[in-house]
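User: Assemble these into one structure.

Assistant: Restating your components, then the assembled model:
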Amino acid sequence: MGAASHYLEAAGIPTTGISLVREHTASMQLPRFLWVSFPLGRPFGAPHEAALQKRVLQTALELFERPGGPVLLEDFPEDAPADTDASSNQPAWSCPIAFPAAPDADESELVSAALNELRQLEPWHEIHLEQARVIPPASGTTKEQIIREIGRIAQGDKPTLADAERPLHEWLRLACDDLRNWYLDAAQGQPGRGSADQLQDWFWRSTAGARLIAAAASQLIHHHEPMVVMLARRAMVPREYLAELAPEIEPTI
Amino acid sequence: MDYMVRLAEIPKLEREHLLAKECEPFESRPWALGPALSKRRVALLTSAGLHRVQDKAFSMVDLSYRVIPGDIDADELTMTHSSVHFDRSGFREDVNLVFPIDRLRELAAGGVIGSVARYHYSLMGAGWLPHQIESTMREIARLLREDEVDAVCLVPV
């Protein structure tokens, strides 16, 4: 966003903005940014906290009223509320289903285990959809098709769902997102609000779906198409989980 | 406030990745001015890879932009950002966590800002270096001027 700010200002359009990484904004010496202490992915603090979101937005916009410049970086004084509200009557979040640990499962066993996870999580996903909006899958593929296709890739077989219009690296990126989103939506069907970290840890450390994605990534680092290799190395498994799930992939820094 | 503590809360490898990014200052430091906030027409520009469900998804490395109509129902938005390294569960619960269009409308209704822009804009903020976005931003600046926007709020993810 720093570059967007610079080029818009150079075109005569005044900007203000939210900074999530203060070091970047300070280093680039940009006009009007409000640093917030919130996690990546949550620039306005917390979901369904309209009053907090509005305070953040208004504080950022009020930087337009400040004299001075051409560099202005302020800190928003509030933290986000805790993800799990201890004062509420809601129980702390935990996934209602314990999946069997199968760290040594081969790829075909992972496909079966992941399909079984979908069946077990389906009621929780339905509960989630009663409370939340429906976002259609971006890959245009069902979750069962995604698991079977990623299973084929993990076993080194030729993919069948990518085509000239949507090459493998683009289909697979969206498909991995769709699958992960489906699991995380289902996890939020459980009473209690899971924090972003809890939900991530649950998906990447507890599910066969995540292990299947990692197995496909490990296979694809040897692919002949550079974009597929880039996807496998950088954008299928978060850096923090590579050592556990795909130790053959060196994290890119 | 000790902001370094906050960066320290990010997992180690992600923190190292963030700190390794190229963040050199630009040669010039433009500072555009405008009327009082209560008179301004405000647009949002997000780098979260948001777009309407029916729009083309962002590619893995993508310097294009999407237009988000100012009267959109926030629930019509989806996200096809290429990074796997930030939380998306919050966005799926509440679009305003990432794209505060309803909050912006409230500020307009309360007279804090003058009006909400006719269009807002979305980038996919991964995989490119700062200078590579210049021509995209020139095009967006032209569209913003046509809409008489004189305040843009930039939102990262």
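Residues 150 and 213 of chain A are 7 Å apart (CA to CA).
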